[in-house]
Amino acid sequence: MKSAYQMVGHNFNNDRKENDFYETPKDAILDLLANQKFEGNIWECACGNGAISNELIKVGYDVYSSDLINRGYGETGIDFLKANKRFDNIVTNPPFNLATEFTNHALKITNKKVALLCKLSFLEGKRRSKELFSQKKLEKVLIFSRRLGFKKNDAKGGLMAFAWFIYDKNYNGLPQIDWI
Description:
Order of helices and strands: HHEHEEEHEHEEE
Low-confidence stretches: 1-11
CATH superfamily: Vaccinia Virus protein VP39
Strand order of the largest sheet: 3-2-1-4-5-7-6-8
Strand content: 15-25%
Oligomer: single chain
Distance between the termini: 32 Å
């Protein structure tokens, strides 16, 4: 029988993937593309093995891919949080423990939109409320009505709820909430 800690994802086995890398499920990317359009180029700044980048390229987007860690895809050794590159849009699945920092930095250096795949609990927190949500740039939250599986052959999905958080530099209002 699982304990409460195990049920919410506490890692007693210490078997997390190195650098917290979990490939973005293809269906999560396809759901984003079915519900959100981007104008201009896109930076996938935590590209991992190219899961998001490849799908964006397939539908015709101009994508620059980078990551701090070399996983065999994109330009490596690029620390997004220190980079000053400018792109029209940023689309990524940030490291969970750096999601707030990624969001803040992305909003400073992007021209148009930022789309981040984050835990639904990202909506919580005094710091994010003050730093991010008070800016009223969060345009949409696209909530997955099913649980995403981040592990290979994980047809049942995981234990945590996820959503795409879509920010627009030209937006000023409350977010639209929708389910995908």
